[in-house]
TrEMBL record:
InterPro entries reported for this sequence: DegV, DegV_C, DegV_domain_contain
Protein name: DegV family protein
Keywords attached to this entry: Lipid-binding
Ranges in coiled-coil conformation: none
Lineage: Bacteria, Bacillati, Bacillota, Bacilli, Bacillales
Length: 280
């Protein structure tokens, strides 16, 4: 049984890994006024952060049309028996439901949809592991069972450096953003029940990063095999430095670097840092 792996652009899997594991990607879009850009195709993360500096209004974001899913699933059905479609949390986007609807429309392939209940490269971990298992010849049912098992140890925390985008996007009141900026508050966010909620408020960026590392250490110090990812919003050098620091301390962990692209970056803003992981 040959199984194809599909995910959406908010997994922010580096191109070389997508190509290596033959992971298919459906893009979400960011919209500046009447101009719409498919992330990872029409606009890169770097271009997005340049563009947003010049705009007074935050862009809006939109999920892929159901027709794009149908077209891809039918194409994959020509040489696959099954498709596993892995998407960002259904609590923050209708993308997963779009994949479910498309899967019910196609007749030449069986579609399994998976709600990651998370986003960014931690969502990408599901796609990577699924693709590895597919290459090993595992059935779609076996792969889905492993993805559900991964959920039990999958964690991610995000530190927001600048509260402006949360405030401009209506996720934080103007007064909260103003006071938070004055006090140098760096909120740490996480996914809970499929939505992004505050985990802790930390004073200063340095202390917030220290707290992220403490949360990671609670799991990584067990010496069990793990995968982890550092995610940055236009801070590649800092992410590399943090990865080097962590890799030296935790030889049991395979570290990757990823980024917040346009859709997620719209809400978190430039300078955000994330750390996500799961047990192998």
């Amino acid at each position: 049984m040959k199984t194809a792996i599909v995910t959406d652009s908010t997994a922010y899997i580096p191109n070389e890994l997508r190509e290596k594991y033959n992971i298919h990607m459906i893009p979400l879009s960011v919209n500046f006024g009447v101009e719409s850009y498919r992330e990872e195709i029409d606009i890169t993360a770097d271009q997005f952060f340049e563009e947003i500096k010049a705009k007074s209004e935050l862009p809006t974001t939109s999920q892929p049309p159901v027709g794009e899913f149908v077209e891809l699933f039918e194409k994959l059905g020509h040489d696959h028996d099954a498709v596993i479609s892995i998407h960002l949390s259904s609590g923050i986007s209708g993308t997963y439901q779009g994949a479910v609807s498309a899967g019910e429309m196609v007749e030449n392939v069986k579609v399994f949809t998976f709600d990651s209940e998370i986003s960014c490269m931690v969502q990408g971990f599901y796609a990577l592991e699924g693709a590895e298992l597919a290459q090993e010849g595992k059935t779609a049912e076996e792969i889905m069972a492993r993805l559900e098992e991964m959920k039990t140890t999958m964690k991610a925390y995000f530190m927001v450096d600048d509260l402006t985008n949360l405030q401009r996007g209506g996720r934080l009141s103007g007064a909260q953003a103003f006071v938070g900026s004055l006090l140098q508050v760096k909120p740490i966010l996480h996914f809970q029940d499929k939505v992004i909620v505050p985990f802790e408020k930390i004073r200063t960026r340095k202390k917030a990063l220290k707290r992220l590392f403490e949360l990671f250490d609670e799991v990584a110090s067990s010496n069990e095999p793990m995968r982890a990812v550092l995610i940055h919003a236009n801070r590649p050098e800092e992410a590399e430095e943090l990865k080097t620091e962590l890799a030296q301390k935790y030889p049991n962990v395979e570290f990757l670097i990823s980024y917040f692209g346009p859709v997620i970056g719209t809400h978190l803003g430039e300078g955000a840092i994330g750390l996500g992981w799961y047990k192998r």
